[in-house]
Amino acid sequence: MESTLQDGEFAIMSRDFSVIKRFDIVVLSSETLKETIIKRVIGLPGETIEYKNDKLYVNGKYVKETFLDQSFKEQKKREMESPLFTNNFKVTLKKGEYYVLGDNRLNSVDSRALGTFTIKDFKARGGIILYPFNKMGRTE
């Protein structure tokens, strides 16, 4: 989840999954990886998610990703010699499926490789960073 979350940060998160929103940060259990991962919810059940030229479209409508730092994106594209931060793709989710991506799209194992997740895979969501103190605040 670089650049949003860093190793060594401490956060308190919620186990209330009654309302999962787009762009929530979530902790998931990955059966494929046999480990817990932290990602961001991009797609909700029944939606068609498309990335085209580094832009997110949900059901054909452009959705701005304000949480992504533009300078971080450009730096990673240069480092990886990639013209895109998020490669183009399109997926339609079924009932009960969620699509998650890491914030460092060029170096993230997420739904693009692992497939969709269901509510049973969720361990926590949202929350507040408590440490380090200079980053204290809501996870976004």
What is the topological layout?
Elements: E1 10-14, E2 25-30, E3 35-43, E4 48-52, E5 55-58, E6 61-63, H1 70-79, E7 89-92, E8 99-101, H2 111-114, E9 122-131, E10 137-138
Antiparallel strand pairs: 1-9, 2-3, 2-9, 3-8, 4-5, 4-7, 5-6, 9-10
Descriptive notes:
It is a single chain. The N and C termini lie close together (11 Å). With 140 residues, the protein is mainly beta. The chain has one domain: Umud Fragment, subunit A. The chain has two helices and ten strands.
Question: Could you tell me the number of beta strands?
Answer: 10
What is the succession of H and E elements?
EEEEEEHEEHEE
* Strand portion: 35-45%
Helix content: 10-25%
Rg on CA atoms, Å: 15 Å
Q: What distance lies between the first and last C-alpha atoms, to the nearest angstrom?
A: 11 Å
Shape, per Cα inertia axes: globular
Going by helix content, strand content and strand pairing, the class is mainly beta
Number of domains: 1
CATH superfamily: Umud Fragment, subunit A
Low-pLDDT stretches: 1-6
> What is the CATH class name?
Mainly Beta
Task: Write down the overall mean pLDDT.
Answer: 84
Per DSSP, the total helix count is: 2
Largest sheet: 6 strands, antiparallel
Second CATH tier, the architecture: Ribbon
**CATH topology heading:** Umud Fragment, subunit A
Family: Belongs to the peptidase S26 family.
Domain Peptidase S26: 1-127
Pfam family, one: Peptidase_S26
Catalytic activity: Cleavage of hydrophobic, N-terminal signal or leader sequences from secreted and periplasmic proteins
